[in-house]
Amino acid sequence: MTHPQGPVLAADRRGFLLASAGLAAGVALGGLPRRAQAAPLALPPLPFADNALAPVISANTLGFHYGKHHMGYLTNLNKLIAGTELAELPLEKIVAAVAGKADKVGIFNNAAQTWNHSFYWKSLKPQGGGEPPAALKQMMEASFGSVEACKKELAATAVGQFASGWGWLVADGGKLKVVKTGNADTPLTSSMKPLLTIDVWEHAYYLDYQNRRADYVNAVIDKLINWEFALHNLG
Ligand code: MN
Predict the structure, then answer these.
(1) Which pLDDT belongs to residue 153?
(2) What number is the average pLDDT over the span 215-226?
(3) Domain membership flag for residue 72
């Protein structure tokens, strides 16, 4: 903590007393509000029980994925931003603030991965998949020709992401699109609006499917994907 000390304060007894009281209360000298130590970002709770996605995604996978991987990104992020101005921003603003900055890659990777994972959990639900809500279905048909064609492209894109990354359904200029991103990259920093995502890092499926990424992706789309969440994000 830094604060001015010296003859001015010493000469101004009243000011000194106020300043002392202010420091104790976390208020800056001169009565200006002092930046409170920002609380670390917290991990949002999983929107379902850790066994609720089985057998498509086991409780074992969820335990590691949420409790170790997602938590790990968040813990790293909180360490990297502690005491900086970034610590006072909501997560989405942190991602935006450091995206594309060569000296902030570590912060970006951990912030974007924290955001991507929270978004991924909401993209899934027990007894998901099935028929999309009518408004989303209409957009799928307008953009891809049919719901099946949309699902097929989402699966092919997620499976086709080389190495670690994400498959996404996004809105772009009034149309739906399917895109993939590598590693921590996220459409959040683009002009596209993310609607839902599928994590295709190996840690998302390897305990349950080993190398069979396509089986994991297809099972997620058929049985877990949360179309209502996508529609909600369309706004
Ligand atoms: Mn992951």
Answers:
(1) 98
(2) 98
(3) yes
Q: Please give all residues whose CB falls under 5 A of ion ligand 1, grouped by chain where several chains appear.
A: 199, 201, 204
* Joined tokens for residue 86: 């970034």
Please indicate, yes or no, whether residues 22 and 79 belong to a single structural domain of this protein.
Answer: no
**pTM assigned to the model:** 0.84
Buried b (16+ CB within 10 A) or exposed e, 170-206: bbeeeebbbbbbeebbbbbbeebbbbbbbbbbeebbe
Structural domain count, the chain: 3
Domain range for 87: 59-122
Region 160-186: what's the mean pLDDT? 97
Q: Using the mean position of ligand 1's atoms as its centre, give its distance from the Cα of residue 65 in Å.
A: 6
Find the 174 Cα to ligand 1 centroid distance in Å. Answer: 29
The alpha carbon of 207 and the centre of ligand 1 are apart by a number of angstroms equal to: 13
> 177 CA distance to ligand 1 centroid (A)?
22
User: 22 alpha carbon to ligand 1 midpoint, in Å?
Assistant: 44
Residues 188 and 142 in one domain: yes
